Amino acid sequence: ELVRLLNARERFCTASSCDGRVIVTDTDGTGIQKKNCTWLLVTHDPCVKSDVMTALEKATGDVVFKFEPFVLHVLCRELQDARLLHSVAIDSGFRNSGITVGRGGKITMAVRSTHCLEVPLSHKGRLMVSEEYIEFLVHVANQKMEENLRRIDRFHKGLELALEAAVPADTLFPEAPEKSHSVYVHRRKRRTAQEQANPSRELEPQDDTESSLDLFDEIMI
Amino acid sequence: ELVRLLNARERFCTASSCDGRVIVTDTDGTGIQKKNCTWLLVTHDPCVKSDVMTALEKATGDVVFKFEPFVLHVLCRELQDARLLHSVAIDSGFRNSGITVGRGGKITMAVRSTHCLEVPLSHKGRLMVSEEYIEFLVHVANQKMEENLRRIDRFHKGLELALEAAVPADTLFPEAPEKSHSVYVHRRKRRTAQEQANPSRELEPQDDTESSLDLFDEIMI
């Protein structure tokens, strides 16, 4: 629904997304290189211990259990559009979000979280943890999945508000000249339109739950 | 040295950085909330098992072992400057890097890696893993630390090349008018200067080692 909300706007186009998932991978144990990596388990729903145990039976190398939170990439028409999304993402708790400007000028906004798990479980085919630990780990992962869903929901609601508030420049200036012919005039008009019609800047940043662990947050808004 | 390299340029100013570290934290076990979090261990050097064991003796809640890779935040004068840094960061393996444009127009480039560890070790004061597992974990963390240093080195070298190549617009156009009076003219001149003098666009992206685990990388360049 979030993806539909964005794609309904001309100025946004979602490129890829993942709601959040638990994955269990098996690698050949050469350390950092993720070559020869096999996926033993992928689930976007709450995880159960027996699935992890079954996955582990197939393992021959170094198995890693991961929780990967929500990721969303959105192509944006203008930098201002990406800033709006970025602001809502940060306010919703997605603190590693950022904007990418490609070589051809393509603007992408990436919604990312700091909220992960990455746990080595076995080495050279030998399980290094107890079944009880795996049960505990599954519980922690499911808690993170729940928190992840709460953040997605916050982002979704924040985005609805912000998009409603941000009257697009095209609506205000239907007679605006083609960008390629008069970039400067078009830009100035857009900026004025945004200033008048974009109260999303006034959203209060929410107090994020992870602040005590990250020294760098204050500059990310 | 990397920080000095950037700060020697007028168009860059580093805001915060961490080379990479291992941390062991103790929380009150309420799950996601990182309130009442105690740091039991922080090291920027290779980790040793005995330090982790000593740290664990002080634990009363839920202990988590983390490897956090290199992070660097750089304030950039213009978007083009941030794009240059971003391009070098991605080519060096820092694939979660991104640009942030603040409410006041402040442009920050964040260098971030996907390369982490986050492992719950104890629950309500009770250790959930063996000493042998902690030894293994320390080994994995140290491997990641080494790879992290290789990436920092790659980033440093790539940055030296890119900065040498990118002759700043101010040097080419010392007579350029003040930005606030004539943004448009200044911008057009800058763009021309960049086109002539910025061969960093021609850097070959390196084949990153984590590609098989991330579906979203192709759009991050």
Q: Secondary-structure element sequence of chain A?
A: HEEEHEEHEEEEHHH
- CATH uppermost class of chain A: Alpha Beta
Tell me the structural class of chain A.
Answer: alpha+beta
Count of beta strands of chain A: 9
Task: Tell me the strand percentage band of chain A.
Answer: 15-25%
Could you list the spans of chain A in which at least 5 consecutive residues all have pLDDT below 50? 169-221
Oligomeric form: homodimer
Q: What is the overall number of helices of chain A?
A: 6
What gross morphology of chain A would you assign? elongated
User: Largest contact between protein chains?
Assistant: A-B, 58 and 58 residues
Please give the order of strands in the largest beta sheet of chain A.
3-2-4-8-9
Could you state the CATH homologous superfamily of chain A? tRNA wybutosine-synthesizing-like
Task: Report Rg of chain A.
Answer: 21 Å
- Mean pLDDT metric of chain A: 78
> What about the largest sheet of chain A?
5 strands, antiparallel
Number of domains of chain A: 1
Helical amount of chain A: 25-40%
CATH topology term of chain A: SSo0622-like fold
User: Do you know the CATH architecture of chain A?
Assistant: 2-Layer Sandwich
Report how far the terminal alpha carbons of chain A are from each other: 26 Å
How is this structure best described in words?
- 2 copies of one chain form a homodimer.
- The first copy, chain A, is α+β, with helices and mostly antiparallel strands.
- Chain A has a single domain (2-219), classed as 2-Layer Sandwich (SSo0622-like fold).
- Helices cover 37% and strands 23% of the residues of chain A.
- Chain A contains 6 helices and 9 strands.
- Chain A has helices at 2-7, 49-57, 79-91, 131-165, 169-172, 183-197, and strands spanning 12-18, 21-27, 38-43, 62-68, 71-76, 98-101, 107-111, 117-123, 126-127.
- Chain A has a 5-stranded antiparallel β-sheet with strand order 3-2-4-8-9. In chain A, strands 1-5-7-6 form a 4-stranded antiparallel β-sheet.
- In chain A, a hairpin with a 2-residue loop joins β8 (117-123) and β9.
- Chain A is elongated, with a radius of gyration of 21 Å.
- Mean pLDDT of chain A is 78; it is low at 169-221.
